[in-house]
Design a protein that fits this description.
Blueprint lengths: L2 H8 L8 H4 L3 H9 L5 H10 L2 H23 L31 H36 L1 H16 L2 H20 L1 H15 L3 H14 L3 H8 L4 H12 L1 H24 L11 H9 L7 H28 L1 H4 L2
Helix pairs in contact: 4-15, 5-6, 5-15, 6-7, 6-9, 6-10, 6-13, 6-14, 8-9, 11-12, 13-14, 13-15, 14-15
Length: 327
């Protein structure tokens, strides 16, 4: 037997062996390296989609906002038009939600009142978010200002909210109405009153996150190369506290809508001929036994809006939390 025959008997000629046969996991590893990385916001959206309550809340909130802002273009009845001959009517094709004691269409007033209530909620939320984020970042980043700002926060938290709002409404209602007009002045007053009295939870949450983030390695590295405090806050601190700020924003809308409805229900909000959901509740109380639907519709709108915003906030909190996002 020759050497060539001996070699053929020991090692049969089977061709080149595939890499996947020698290393079964090599193909999977190669696919992982070739797959493009997903962005952070894509991961947030993927986690948010798994929260059924948040998705339902988002769809419901978008539907309510679209209904109150786009509905008047489809339902063109003037919410302030008085028709005494059609007063106190029940639901019909001409008036799906009925009419009030002056013959005004309740559906048109619901949409007009929704515009005011949602606008107050969003604007007051933005004001409270700005104040809370500013005070929280400053208190957490600058140690010498932490004590005074937190004592100021404790002072505002100790104040009774509703009596303070009532005092502000009584003191500044007439001056602002004279300066900006009745409706615009009251809008500014309600937004400022709600925003000034609801920034404290946001400030506490943001301060706690800033205290932890400013000791991280990337902040210390930025400080070591001479980066100014303003640049550190805007480039490194604020992007990392965006998660609690967004969650506070959604919950702040719900709080502002409830507060505005409470003020209007007490008769300290907008004038009677300027509808809001709270004002419609106030007007319907006198006719609760005869026409209970007058209280039902604005109450349902307030409840659904607040519930949808709360579920939306829960979904954003879970999606923006990296410890929960990978589950």
């Amino acid at each position: 037997m020759t050497d060539h025959d001996r070699t053929d008997s020991l090692v049969p000629d089977e061709g080149i062996v595939p890499v996947s046969t020698v290393l079964p996991g090599a193909a999977g590893v190669m696919e992982e390296f070739t797959t493009p990385p997903s962005s952070q916001w894509r991961d947030v959206w993927d986690q948010f989609k798994t929260h059924k309550g948040a998705m339902i809340g988002a769809v419901l909130f978008i539907f309510i906002v679209a209904g109150v802002y786009l509905g008047p273009y489809l339902w063109s009845i003037d919410p302030t038009q008085i028709d005494i001959r059609a007063r106190n009517q029940g639901p019909s094709w001409a008036h799906p939600f009925g009419t009030d004691q002056l013959g005004r269409d309740i559906l048109a007033r619901m949409m007009s009142g929704g515009q005011t209530s949602v606008s107050v909620g969003i604007t007051a939320m933005l004001l409270a978010l700005f104040l809370g984020s500013l005070i929280g970042v400053v208190a957490g980043f600058f140690k010498r200002l932490d004590g005074p700002l937190m004592r100021l926060t404790d002072l505002f938290l100790a104040l009774p909210l509703l009596p303070l709002l009532l005092v502000m409404m009584l003191l500044f209602r007439e001056p602002l109405s004279a300066a900006f007009g009745l409706e615009r002045g009251i809008f500014i007053l309600i937004v400022c009153a709600i925003g000034i009295t609801s920034w404290m939870p946001t400030a506490r949450i943001v301060r706690g996150d800033v205290l932890a983030i400013k000791e991280r390695e990337f902040v210390l590295a930025a400080r070591s190369i001479g980066t100014s405090n303003t640049q550190i806050i805007t480039r490194h601190i604020l992007p990392n506290v965006l998660s609690p700020i967004m969650v506070s924003a959604t919950l702040g809308i719900a709080t502002a809508i409830i507060t505005e409805s409470a003020l209007s229900f007490l008769g300290l909000g907008f004038p009677p001929d300027f509808p809001t959901w709270g004002r419609l509740l106030f007007d319907g109380v006198d006719y609760l036994q005869q026409y209970p639907e007058r209280v039902f519709w604005p109450g349902l709108a307030i409840s659904l809006t607040v519930l949808s915003v709360n579920y939306l906030g829960d979904g954003l909190r879970d999606a923006l939390d990296p410890r929960i996002r990978g589950r």
